[in-house]
Amino acid sequence: WSQPWGRAIIGDYKGVQLNLLPSKITTWGNWRHEHPETRVMTNDVDRLSLRRQGFSEDFVIGLILSNESKAFYYKDVERAGIINEEIAGIPIMIWAAGQNFQAYVRKVNDQTLTFEIIEGELRDEETGSSWDITLGLAVAGPLKGEALQPVPSSSSFDWAWRDFYPQAEFYSP
Questions:
Q1: pTM score above 0.70
Q2: Which of 66, 134, 144, 154 has the fewest CB atoms below 10 angstroms from its CB?
Q3: Element (H, E) at 91
């Protein structure tokens, strides 16, 4: 199996394509804050590494929608805070801060939203609703209770992304 492609490349299942699911890279502290009831099972607590590793200059967040791919340098997304973009004609929003990132389809009830951060709070320009950026959930305003659809993402070094997705576009601020 090729991890970046999610496709069997050798063996009985050669050519079988797995569906890419949304996932998240975050710190343990942030995860525990967002999911306080989380339980972890491990057999090797003494071998569990608690080292901190930041994202290097060549780290990218790769998004794949409708067989089109686009990579965003983590540093560019973090610097911008929020990027409103399109992939394969689908409006998306990507956010990064600290060691966290998330991407969502920025459409609710057939309405395309444009996001911005105002005084540390995520809001959409169209309705002024406030959003929990880590959950993609409107927490106040006309869209309260609505949820954004997460976009499947993959993180890698830029050279690895280019190897597996040579036709991919790279976002340029």
A1: yes
A2: 66
A3: strand 90-97
